[in-house]
């Protein structure tokens, strides 16, 4: 800490007046994120894919369910860049549509997981009595549940009831989002609790408490914003995990109904034609892989940028 | 009683509440599920309402929820898992038939993952940020971003369809005898085990790398080097031994995910294990089998956590057994 006590007043005065640099933690994080080249490249790729998926109806005119028996199982061509399936339906159109669902499921399930995880983690992190350990026991219990078998069990038991409530598409969507989100909140809860346990003893929280801030205000205004970095990283990874979970369910034939071509569902239909139409499986598989890989790289870049525990 | 014995007993006692908790979650899901098992009888005019009521009473459907839970739990613990409507045999016999294949696949995949992860992870950590480290960590990212169902299809496409080297359907009844039997068995296991093993190995490599990096900077490693020990001995005897202790716990934490991968792998290669049993039971609306399989998966997770805890206690002398 040399320099903190100036040798003389003149020494302090002589220090050149630096131009006031506008400092923002987000700008700083972006600067650190940019250093991770693969993460930036992934951001571009993911951005392009999402743009293609969102703008698809305006660009690609073919419908997802135009059956054309004269063009069955045709390989990639100018007319059908990704080829056609066994009913002659255009695979590019189906994949653009399915991508919207896969990414929507991923984002929605992430929101469920992060909201539940943050609430449970915050309550556990703020409580000083028996509530915290009890919630952590629950978290550990959920961590040791076999996710996919349980997912299959819940979908098997509740499928029909939800279908009648929200319609065939909405029902499956709600079910998959709630169940994937409901089985993935544990890492976020643990992270938030660990952050809260250390942050709640910091001076600035003590100052807020001394000024009479209510518990809710302490959490929302002072503790939570400081705990957000690792939660954002966990949220990114959760999107990738949810996309894989949804694709796995659809691949097993237990996710969305056949008329909704999510990427996993297209793979499920394609797997019996591997010998005559390999492109049919390769395109959706590559799409899932590319999406998940770029999300994971972005998560890695965000970890460098936002996680204060990592010293660059 | 020895110290280790007491530690073991305490771990066992801790496992019981988590088993009870898991059973509670399963039962809650089952109890909340809509639908009445006797609905068919209700719409059948030939069955009088009194008979239906008697049946409901006999199976305890009108009892309070907690008493139904206790009955269900006792039945599960006694191995009385019901009757499979689809296969026409008792569920416990069915699962015992299927379990060995699943355990064989998971065990071999775990072994393959360790055989990849330990050398690669250790070597990468010895030269952090070198070219080898960067390539291996990028490959690890690729590895765990590849969903198991896609790797499986890719392998089938390459090695079965294009090259025609390996069979893509797993057969439980191989007619060959002697060493031919082992050879056929080995050939058909290569792809399923690789699919699962590569997925596991990718994330495990990262664990091993970061764990070795934590240890390699410690003072005792410097001391070992200062004594004039060779780099090989320092790494193998001093670093890796200690670095692998936390990896044991991480492997146990991965266990629930492994079963997900096993279900997919068994489904792709048509391996007759409990993973493919769950799927076929769901397609056949065979509720007792689905419940029992989920319960078995949950028990296996708890069992592997227990084994990891015990191994951890045995490997790490800093753990107090008291």
Q: Count the strands of chain B? A: 0
Report the sheet with the most strands of chain A, covering strand number, pairing sense and barrel closure.
none
**Class by helix and strand content of chain A?**
mainly alpha
By helix and strand content of chain B, what is the structural category? mainly alpha
| Structural shape of chain A | globular
Say how many strands of chain A there are: 0
| Largest interface chains and counts | A-B, 46 and 50 residues
* Mean pLDDT reading of chain B: 81
Question: If you had to describe this structure to a student in words, what would you say it looks like?
Answer:
The complex is a heterodimer of chains A (312) and B (322). Chain A is mainly α. Chain A contains 11 helices and no strands. Chain A has helices at residues 9-14, 25-34, 37-59, 91-126, 131-143, 147-182, 186-199, 203-210, 215-251, 263-270, 278-306. In chain A, helix 4 (91-126) packs antiparallel against helix 5. Chain A is globular and about 75 Å long. Mean pLDDT of chain A is 80; it is low at 1-15. In chain B, 77% of the residues lie in helices and 0% in strands. The model of chain B has no long low-confidence stretch (mean pLDDT 81). The chains are: A mainly alpha (312), B mainly alpha (322). At the A-B interface, helix 5, helix 6, helix 9 and helix 11 of A face helix 1, helix 6, helix 7, helix 10 and helix 11 of B.
């Amino acid at each position: 800490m040399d320099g903190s006590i100036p040798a003389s007043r003149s020494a302090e005065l002589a220090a050149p007046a630096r131009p006031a640099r506008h400092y923002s933690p987000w700008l700083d994080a972006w600067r650190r994120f940019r250093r991770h080249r693969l993460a930036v490249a992934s951001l571009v790729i993911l951005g392009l894919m999402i743009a293609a998926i969102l703008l698809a109806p305006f660009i690609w005119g073919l419908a997802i369910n135009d059956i054309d028996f004269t063009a069955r199982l045709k390989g990639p061509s100018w007319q059908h860049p990704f080829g056609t399936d066994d009913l002659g339906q255009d695979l590019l159109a189906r994949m653009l549509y399915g991508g919207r669902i896969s990414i929507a499921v991923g984002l929605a399930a992430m929101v469920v997981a992060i909201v539940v995880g943050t609430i449970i983690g915050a309550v556990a992190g703020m409580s000083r009595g028996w509530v915290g350990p009890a919630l952590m026991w629950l978290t550990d219990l959920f961590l040791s549940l076999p996710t996919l078998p349980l997912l299959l069990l819940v979908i098997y038991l509740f499928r029909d009831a939800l279908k009648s409530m929200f319609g065939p598409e909405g029902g499956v969507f709600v079910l998959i989002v709630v169940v994937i989100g409901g089985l993935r909140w544990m890492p976020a809860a643990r992270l938030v609790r660990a952050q809260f346990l250390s942050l709640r003893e910091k001076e600035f929280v003590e100052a807020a408490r001394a000024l009479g801030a209510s518990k809710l205000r302490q959490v929302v205004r002072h503790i939570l914003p400081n705990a957000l970095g690792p939660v954002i990283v966990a949220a990114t990874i959760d999107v990738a995990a949810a996309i894989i979970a949804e694709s796995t369910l659809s691949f097993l034939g237990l996710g969305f109904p056949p008329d909704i071509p999510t990427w996993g569902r297209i793979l499920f239909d394609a797997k019996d034609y591997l010998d005559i139409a390999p492109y049919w499986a390769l395109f959706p598989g590559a799409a899932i892989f590319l999406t998940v890989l770029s999300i994971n790289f972005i998560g890695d870049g965000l970890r460098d940028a936002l996680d204060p525990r990592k010293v660059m | 009683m020895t110290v280790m014995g007491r530690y073991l007993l305490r771990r066992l006692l801790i496992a019981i509440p988590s088993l009870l908790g898991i059973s509670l979650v399963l039962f809650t899901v089952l109890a909340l599920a809509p639908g009445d098992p006797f609905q068919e009888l209700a719409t059948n005019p030939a069955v009088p309402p009194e008979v239906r009521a008697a049946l409901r009473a006999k199976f305890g459907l009108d009892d309070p929820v907690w008493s139904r839970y206790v009955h269900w739990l006792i039945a599960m613990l006694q191995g009385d898992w019901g009757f499979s409507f689809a296969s026409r045999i008792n569920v416990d016999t069915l699962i015992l038939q299927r379990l060995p294949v699943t355990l064989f696949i998971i065990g071999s995949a775990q072994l393959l993952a360790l055989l990849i992860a330990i050398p690669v992870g250790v070597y990468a950590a010895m030269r952090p940020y070198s070219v080898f480290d960067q390539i291996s960590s990028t490959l690890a990212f690729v590895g765990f971003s590849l969903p198991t169902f896609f790797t499986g299809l890719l392998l089938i496409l390459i090695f079965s369809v294009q090259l025609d080297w390996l069979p893509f359907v797993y057969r439980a009844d191989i007619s060959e005898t002697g060493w031919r039997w082992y050879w056929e068995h080995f050939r058909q296991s290569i792809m399923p085990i690789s699919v699962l093993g590569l997925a596991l190995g990718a994330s495990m490599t990262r664990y091993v790398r970061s764990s070795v990096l934590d240890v390699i900077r410690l003072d005792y490693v410097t001391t070992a080097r200062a004594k004039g020990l060779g780099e090989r001995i320092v790494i193998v005897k001093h670093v890796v031994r200690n670095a692998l202790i936390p990896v044991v716990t991480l492997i146990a934490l991965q266990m629930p995910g492994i079963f997900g991968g096993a279900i997919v792998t068994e489904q792709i290669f048509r391996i007759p294990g409990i993973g493919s049993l769950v799927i076929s039971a769901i397609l056949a609306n065979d509720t007792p089998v689905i419940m029992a399989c989920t319960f078995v998966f949950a028990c296996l997770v708890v069992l592997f956590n227990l084994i990891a805890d015990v191994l951890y206690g045995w490997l790490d002398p800093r753990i107090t057994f008291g």
